[in-house]
């Protein structure tokens, strides 16, 4: 596959510019293009991050038509070797995949077309930005961003360098979901009032791990990257980084990113960000060192009055009800449930009826092949879940999390619902409270919720306004480690 001379030289220019400022990862250089000559040309891709989702990426690209897995990347030497051994055993011809610890080595390859990012959250935006600047297309796991500011920079990098960026929200490739959302927005169905997402899957506590030196097989500096972490402990690697604010975003913007994205997708197309957000929750049942809530109810309101509700319930108990799906509450009182195919319970009806809808518009090929099709076409608009859609969905979760993070304790009591200031939110949070009280067995007034601040947000400036703006705006951009700075959007 051939790239323009600009694209071929862009990486060299970038490395020269970063060395001039002490190795900091800033955005400089000229627009890069990554054009593919024909629909049958081979796509060479690198997978960064090889635990969990990374294996799914490897499997997905291995099954895609005429795609070469050029690199696998991980800072843990044992993980990297394990994946390389597995790939070599599966190889049917000459084994060409290279294993490297640092993604920048893969970006140096002028013949590499794309990078597929399955690292911890705190690396997602920086890798997306760096890859875009190097003229590489990007498939990035959810959430695309770890904070609001870096998400905006990723959007601007995609715009400037013209690469395809597709978000790891696989449901964006589901034509049935797209069809429902098109029907809601066209007037075929009554107007949407509330889009409701659930991330209620059983999890357990992570215990308490003492600080100490990282294992010899882990390049800790590369793993941390931009995250400012005082000291290693064994709960960071390989998975439990999700439950610490420096590296993760809790289950709201982990598994929940899928359901958050679906909920925001249903909101009218002319809406970008919410203007208000509020959360309440806590970390119950477990005595561990995790920071993010395992129980949380959040809501956000858009300028047009439509709302998104979200429910996280990651505890476990006898009779636990797993709920990972979306609901749609319409202005006429109807409720729609399902995923891809739907039922609607109309006002006054005793039981729901099947909802018959046309399929919506998505790039065909499923999650993996749709991305490859967009890469071959060199058309960012073909991405099922592009950079801008990813940003809007991720920011929705960031606002909810930020409300929680600057909140204050209130008693664990059903009356805490009345502090939410929204009748629909009160009703839905009350249901969650009753599950925690009666299912988990938490006694009233025996512990505390964290009641988030009611935040106001300016969609145009992507800054908080109003009473709690100073506290909330401090969370718009995380601190970065020296040498791994994530630039602001204006630097792109």
Please describe what this structure looks like.
The protein contains 13 helices and 18 strands. The chain is an alpha/beta fold and 492 residues long. The protein folds into two domains: 5-172, NAD(P)-binding Rossmann-like Domain (Rossmann fold); 179-361 and 385-473, Dihydrodipicolinate Reductase, domain 2 (2-Layer Sandwich). Strands 7, 8, 9, 10, 11, 12, 13, 14, 15, 16, 17 and 18 form a twelve-stranded mixed sheet that branches. α9 (256-266) crosses α11. It starts with a helix and ends in a 19-residue tail after the last helix.
Estimate what percentage of residues fall within beta strands.
Answer: 15-25%
Query: Regarding quaternary structure, how should these chains be classified?
Result: single chain
CATH topology of the largest domain: Dihydrodipicolinate Reductase, domain 2
| Tally of discrete structural domains | 2
Fourth-level CATH superfamily of the largest domain:
Dihydrodipicolinate Reductase, domain 2
Based on secondary structure, the structural category is alpha/beta
Please give the number of β-strands: 18
Work out the helix count. Answer: 13
Pfam families: GFO_IDH_MocA, GFO_IDH_MocA_C2
InterPro entries: Gfo/Idh/MocA-like_OxRdtase_N, Gfo/Idh/MocA_oxidrdct_glycsds, Gfo/Idh/MocA_OxRdtase_bact_C, NAD(P)-bd_dom_sf, TAT_signal
EC number: 1.1.1.312
Keywords: Oxidoreductase
Task: Outline the secondary-structure elements.
Layout (H helix, E strand, L loop, with lengths): L4 H15 L23 E6 L4 H11 L3 E7 L3 H14 L7 E3 L2 H5 L6 E4 L6 H10 L3 E4 L7 H14 L3 E3 L7 H12 L5 E8 L20 H5 L31 H11 L9 E7 L12 E7 L5 E7 L12 E5 L4 E4 L3 E4 L7 E3 L10 H12 L9 H19 L2 E4 L11 H18 L7 E4 L3 E4 L4 E3 L3 H5 L19
Parallel strand pairs: 1-2, 1-4, 2-3, 4-5, 5-6, 7-10
Antiparallel strand pairs: 7-11, 8-9, 8-16, 8-17, 9-10, 11-12, 12-13, 13-14, 15-16, 17-18
Organism: Allorhodopirellula solitaria
GO molecular function, one term: 4-carboxy-2-hydroxymuconate semialdehyde hemiacetal dehydrogenase activity
EC number: 1.1.1.312
């Amino acid at each position: 596959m051939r790239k323009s001379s600009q694209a071929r030289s862009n990486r060299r220019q970038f490395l020269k510019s970063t060395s001039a400022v002490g190795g900091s990862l800033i955005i400089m250089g000229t627009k890069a293009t990554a054009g593919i000559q024909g629909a049958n040309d081979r796509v060479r891709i690198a997978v960064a991050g090889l635990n969990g989702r990374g294996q799914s990426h490897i499997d997905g690209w291995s099954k895609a038509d005429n795609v070469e897995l050029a690199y696998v990347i991980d800072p843990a030497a044992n993980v990297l070797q394990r994946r390389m051994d597995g790939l070599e055993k599966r190889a049917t011809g000459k084994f060409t995949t290279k294993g490297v610890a640092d993604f920048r080595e893969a970006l140096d390859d002028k013949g590499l077309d794309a990078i597929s990012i399955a690292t911890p959250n705190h690396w997602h935006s920086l890798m997306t930005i760096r890859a875009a600047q190097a003229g590489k297309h990007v498939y990035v796991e959810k959430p695309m961003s770890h904070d609001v500011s870096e998400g905006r920079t990723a959007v601007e990098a995609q715009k400037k360098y013209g690469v395809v960026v597709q978000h790891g929200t696989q449901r964006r490739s589901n034509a049935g979901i797209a069809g429902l959302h098109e029907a809601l927005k066209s007037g075929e169905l009554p107007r949407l009032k509330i889009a409701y997402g659930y991330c209620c899957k059983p999890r357990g506590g992570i215990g308490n791990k003492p600080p100490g030196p990282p294992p010899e097989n882990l390049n800790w500096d590369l793993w941390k990257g931009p995250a400012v972490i005082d000291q290693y402990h064994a709960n960071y690697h390989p998975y439990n980084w999700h439950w610490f604010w420096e590296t993760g975003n809790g289950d709201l913007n982990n598994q929940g990113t899928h359901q958050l994205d679906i909920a925001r997708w249903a909101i009218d197309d002319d809406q970008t960000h919410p203007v208000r957000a509020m959360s309440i929750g806590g970390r119950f049942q477990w005595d561990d060192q995790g920071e993010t809530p395992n129980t949380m109810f959040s809501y956000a309101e858009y300028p047009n009055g439509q709302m998104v509700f979200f429910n996280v319930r990651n505890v476990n108990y006898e009779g636990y009800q797993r709920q990972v799906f979306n609901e749609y509450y319409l202005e006429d009182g109807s409720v729609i449930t399902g995923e891809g195919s739907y039922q609607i319970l109309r006002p006054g009806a005793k039981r729901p009826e099947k909802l018959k809808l046309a399929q919506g518009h998505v790039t065909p090929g499923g999650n993996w092949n749709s991305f490859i099709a967009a890469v071959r076409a060199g058309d960012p608009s073909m991405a099922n879940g592009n950079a801008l859609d990813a940003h809007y969905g991720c920011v929705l979760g960031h606002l909810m999390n930020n409300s929680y993070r600057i909140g204050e304790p209130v008693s664990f009591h059903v009356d805490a619902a009345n502090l939410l200031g929204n009748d629909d939110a009160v009703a839905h949070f009350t249901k969650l409270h009753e599950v925690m009280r009666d299912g988990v067995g938490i006694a009233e007034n025996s512990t505390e919720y964290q009641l988030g601040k009611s935040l106001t947000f300016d969609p145009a400036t992507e800054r908080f306004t109003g009473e709690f703006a100073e506290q909330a705006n401090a969370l718009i951009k995380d601190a970065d480690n020296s040498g791994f700075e994530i630039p602001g959007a204006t630097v792109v």
